[in-house]
């Protein structure tokens, strides 16, 4: 993997010159609009980067965006990768490794998720303060590269408390409804049954999605402070479960996105 990463980094640096990103951003389903706030310096399609996985979803652009946001140099993944697309965990998290080698000091992650908590409604935001990993394997499975991090990385604080506190304050000042909670990561791509939603709530979940945790594990492995936020696009309440379509999820994400963008932009400006 290290050789593959080096080849990717060599190609990217040839395209971006002396641009050195401080912050990495992963944009989830229906949440690519933050790119509009970035003063774009460079844009590279995943498909053109050697060894870089390609997003197979029609609603994920598949671009690395380099530019300035609130005075900070950022690199944003416009379109993430998922285990259900057929990639390995190492491939899913390859871009996070690459961003670390490009110099990022913080990682900001967004996603669209289903609410498990009856107090968290569709269209609300949820800052992730912990997670439960129900993905079938870890992205750290296999021989450990000690240049990246330890064999057994600590996960007692996967989400940076100071960043969470700042984000909560920003949401309050902007009068944005923003909860805190536990994100459960599952394989997908199917949504959950009534019994599964009930189970996920019983074990401590406030929201459920199909991403984020692999990236967060790898970021923690490399000692990158993480902030993560979910847009709650549907409600998984077993007693009143209604069918939901991808179109509805994307529409809800798009409506809530300006609130998420406001929090992320203001949070980035404080770093």
From TrEMBL:
Residue ranges of every copy of the Nucleoside phosphorylase domain listed in the record: 23-268
Metabolic or biological pathway, per its Swiss-Prot or TrEMBL entry: Purine metabolism; purine nucleoside salvage
Top-level lineage group: Bacteria
Single Gene Ontology MF annotation: purine-nucleoside phosphorylase activity
Keyword Glycosyltransferase: yes
Gene Ontology annotations of biological process type: nucleoside metabolic process
Enzyme Commission designation: 2.4.2.1
Stored Gene3D superfamilies: Nucleoside phosphorylase domain (3.40.50.1580)
Enzyme class name: transferase
Chain ranges passing through the membrane: none
Pfam families the record matches: PNP_UDP_1
Key words of the record: Glycosyltransferase, Phosphoprotein, Transferase
GO cellular component, one term: cytoplasm
Function of the molecule: The purine nucleoside phosphorylases catalyze the phosphorolytic breakdown of the N-glycosidic bond in the beta-(deoxy)ribonucleoside molecules, with the formation of the corresponding free purine bases and pentose-1-phosphate.
Subunit structure comment from the entry: Homotrimer.
NCBIfam families: PNPH, PNPH-PUNA-XAPA, PRK08202.1
Record family assignment: Belongs to the PNP/MTAP phosphorylase family.
This protein's name: Purine nucleoside phosphorylase
């Amino acid at each position: 993997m290290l050789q593959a990463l080096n080849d990717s980094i060599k190609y990217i640096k040839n395209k971006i010159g002396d641009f050195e990103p401080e912050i990495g951003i992963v944009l989830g389903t229906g949440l690519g609009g933050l790119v509009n706030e970035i003063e774009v310096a460079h844009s590279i399609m995943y498909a053109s980067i050697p060894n870089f996985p390609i997003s197979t979803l029609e609603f994920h652009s598949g671009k690395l965006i380099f530019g300035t946001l609130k005075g900070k140099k950022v690199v944003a993944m416009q379109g993430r990768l998922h285990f259900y697309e057929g990639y390995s965990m190492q491939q899913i998290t390859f871009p996070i490794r690459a961003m670390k080698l490009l110099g990022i000091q913080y990682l900001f992650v967004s996603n669209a998720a289903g609410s498990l908590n009856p107090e968290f409604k569709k269209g609300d935001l949820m800052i992730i303060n912990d997670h439960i990993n129900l993905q079938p394997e870890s992205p750290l499975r296999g021989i450990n590269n000690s240049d990246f991090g330890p064999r057994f990385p600590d996960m007692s604080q996967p989400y940076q408390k100071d960043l969470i506190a700042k984000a909560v304050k920003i949401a309050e000042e902007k009068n944005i409804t923003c909860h805190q909670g536990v994100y459960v990561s599952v394989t997908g791509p199917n949504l959950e049954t009534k019994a599964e939603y009930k189970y996920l709530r019983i074990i401590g979940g406030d929201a459920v999605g199909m991403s984020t945790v692999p990236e967060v594990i790898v970021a923690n492995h490399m000692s990158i402070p993480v902030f993560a936020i979910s847009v709650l696009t549907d409600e998984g309440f077993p007693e009143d479960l209604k069918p939901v379509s991808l179109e509805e999820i994307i529409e809800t994400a798009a409506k809530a996105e300006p609130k998420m963008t406001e929090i992320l932009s203001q949070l980035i400006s404080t770093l």
